[in-house]
Amino acid sequence: MALYEQLMQANDETRTCRQLFVLAVDIDATLIQRSTESNNHVDNIFYRTADIQSDNCRREVVGEFLRNHGAEKFSFVFVNSITMWIHLNHGDDGLRNFLHYISSIAEYVLIEPQDWKCYRAAVRRMKKLGCQPFQHFTTLEWREGVDQLIVKYLQSSACGLKFVKCLGQTELWSRSLYLFSSL
Q: What is the span of the domain harbouring residue 37?
């Protein structure tokens, strides 16, 4: 909501866009419920619980949203702190598939990949809680420097994005934010 409000405030000053619509997708139903309940812009911000790795989500949630708004692609796709979870739960191929997918549906991608120390911390946390280990963790080929491997892959012929710039690091986690363009 804060991003939407910032963009609309900037738009009020510049009058560059007529409408702005936001689709937020997360697999965590509790987060989506909280966001939906506090949504002050129900005609413009849409929250959906879905697994972005599923064909159903890609077709029915993302595809339908784009069709309903007369768009082939999103202007921006923001990928915040999820690359590790996709990687741990879907392996190297799942992560590459996700990166390829977001590249195909966005004019710009802003991504915040987690580094390898985050993976190790997640594995320790799951072990400490007595949870099942991540089934793909031991078979991952993208390990040390995984954040930079993601940056390289987005620029490869598989994704075809152009690196625009690193926008700095997040305050809380000190993770780099990378901006890419398909234009």
A: 1-72
Domain final residue pick, 44, 72, 100:
72
Dmax (CA) for the chain in angstroms is: 53
Encode pLDDT of 143-153 as tens digits. 999 999 999 99
Give how many domains the chain has, as a whole number. Answer: 2
* CA nearest neighbour of 153 among 98, 74, 110: 98
Looking at the DSSP bridge assignments, the partners of residue 26 are: 49
Tokens of 180: 């890419």
Cα 102 to its chain centre, rounded Å, is 8
pLDDT value at residue 61: 98
- Paired with 110 in beta bridges are 78, 179
Q: Is 130 exposed, middle or buried (0-12, 13-18, 19+ CB in 10 A)?
A: exposed
- pLDDT at residue 17 greater than cutoff 80: no
| DSSP label at residue 58 | I
In this predicted structure, the answer to whether residue 65 has a pLDDT above a threshold of 80 is yes
Tell whether 101 and 172 lie within a shared domain.
yes
